[in-house]
Each structure stands twice: as structure tokens, then as C-alpha cells.
């Protein structure tokens, strides 16, 4: 039996393919329309943030995204659906380091619905799990971690020449491949997507963070959509570096403003599930009211 109540849908996107959610998921989530199947991968990110914009609380052992929503089951269900429809899930090495035993699969984040997630993948013609992609400049990764060694997922490490050399010092499990891209201590998001496309099907690609990699995708205008879960807690900050927001290492406003359009809103009690679309040459910004004369 599933203990979750259905999400309330407050706003639905009208564009995108209507995906064939099995009835167990459609009852909980409602309809899901998503872009994709164009010539380039449809890149969508999924993040959770507190009311004050914090995405990582950061104390050791409690820096994962689950702490942001209080391990909310509705958020996990939505994460599961978003992973189920992805050909690949990309994370930066910092995200892996914060949850070293994680696998970026739907069943891992919400095991109760694993069979429904599997049904969804099969109806989309996908077999197996999405490719788990880890981006690392340094290549200082422990290949005995489950994402690399469990054999439950295929993993791709996208790294630099130095990183590939460092990784070469460890035995590479059969399920892991390494793609060496151009760049010294910095890889372009476009190179990461090229590596994912070379590894296999890449119609829909999910970016699960973290803030540093997110900044790279946004600055190269390679993010099509953001799924943002807003949790109803305020985390506070002693310093911005200690508790990052959605983007680290890049600034946009006011010099290079990066606006988006609200495409969807769902709700589970105090939690909001927002969808924002980014498009090249998209909305210039909100309509500003004329200044009020004194
Ligand atoms: N609330 C949420 O939804 C959410 C989602 C994801 C992550 N997070 C949190 O965010 C925190 C991690 O933040 P973060 O900014 O460190 O995350 P991150 O972007 O996952 O990791 C940064 C690391 O990834 C690699 N990397 C990222 N962009 C790169 C690029 N362009 N070229 C080469 N390497 C690149 C580098 O790895 P190397 O150091 O190996 O070179 C870099 O140090 C964690 O606490 C995590 O739990 C929260």
C-alpha cells in the first residue's frame, strides 16, 4: 500500500510530450509533460532549496539534499519520476562526496515505488538504469564507492587529462568508463554533454547538481528546465560559502540577467514543486511597473 497523498496541481505546462506514467504514479503526480526528442538532449535539473535559498546545510554527514526537505517522501517520489525518465543523471564530484553511497536511480531514492518506476522506464523503451555521470576535474574519486563498484548502474566519469591519469592508478570496474575532455581544471558543460551522447542514448538528461556544475550549465545556456522543490524551512547562514544556494562560482544578475518562465506548480502540504523553463533568447525579465510619482 502506498501511504502518499496525491500532489495538488496548481499550474501545468502545456508544452512537451505527455509521458506514459503508470496509474500508480499518475495518481500521485498527475500528468507529466516534458521536452525532449529534439536533436539536442533536453537538459533538466532537479534541486531542493530552503525558503532562504540554501541547498546544502553542510555539516559533515548532513550535507545531502535530503536534509533540505527533511527527507520528504513526496520530494523523493518526484525525484524518482524525474530519474525514471532520464537517459543519464549527471552530478559533480562534490555532490557524490556529500552522499558517497548514493546511486542515481529511481528505486534508490524511493524504493517503495521501484516497480512503478521500472514500468515507466520500460514503457519509454528504456532498459536498465540511467547512466550515472560524475564530473570531476581532479579525478580524485574512490572507485570502490557503490556508484562505480556495485554493478547496479553503468557509470561514466568525465574528467581532465590529470584526472584520467589519477584515476588510472586504480583498477577500473567493468561498469565504469572514463571520458577525458579538454580543459585543465575546468570542463565545459558542452563537453560533458558530448561525453554523455557518445556513451549512448541521450534524449533526456537530468542534472542533479551540485551548485558548481549547475553554474556551468547555466552559463553555457545548456539548461532547458529547472525542477525546484521549495521546502518550508529557513536554514540561515553564517557565511554564503558555508551554505551554498543553487549556483556557486558564477554570477549572472545584473550584468547577464538570466530569467526563466514559470511552467508548473504542484504542492504537497507545505512543500512546493516548481518548474521553470530557460530558453535561449527567452523572456527578457518581468514586466516592471512604472515608477510611482511622489
Ligand atoms: N539541495 C539540492 O538539491 C542539492 C543538489 C545537489 C547537490 N547539493 C549539495 O551541494 C553540495 C556540493 O556542492 P558543489 O558545488 O561542490 O557540487 P558539485 O558541483 O556537485 O561539485 C563540485 C565538484 O565537481 C567537479 N566539477 C563541477 N563542475 C566542474 C567543471 N566545470 N569542470 C570540472 N569539474 C567540475 C569538481 O570536482 P573535483 O573537485 O573532483 O575536481 C568540483 O570540485 C553538497 O553538499 C550537495 O549535497 C544539493
How would the global form be characterised?
globular
Strand tally: 12
Percentage beta strand: 15-25%
Could you give the distance between the termini?
A: 62 Å
Q: What name does the CATH topology carry?
A: Dihydrofolate Reductase, subunit A
What order do the strands of the largest sheet run in, or round the barrel if closed? 1-11-12-10-4-9-5-6-7-8
The percent range for helix content is 25-40%
Structural class: alpha/beta
What does this structure look like?
The protein is an alpha/beta fold and 294 residues long. The chain has one domain (8-277): Dihydrofolate Reductase, subunit A (3-Layer(aba) Sandwich). Helices cover 25% and strands 21% of the residues. Mean pLDDT is 92; it is low at 287-291. It binds NADP nicotinamide-adenine-dinucleotide phosphate (NAP). NADP nicotinamide-adenine-dinucleotide phosphate (NAP) binds at residues 47-48, 55-56, 63-65, 68, 91-95, 98, 135-138, 140, 186-187, 208-213, 216, 244, 248.
How do the strands and helices of this protein lay out in sequence?
Elements: E1 8-11, E2 17-18, H1 23-29, E3 33-34, E4 42-49, H2 66-69, H3 73-84, E5 88-92, H4 93-98, H5 106-109, H6 114-123, E6 131-136, H7 146-149, E7 155-159, H8 161-167, E8 176-180, H9 189-199, E9 204-207, H10 211-219, E10 225-230, E11 261-268, E12 271-277
This protein binds NADP nicotinamide-adenine-dinucleotide phosphate (NAP).
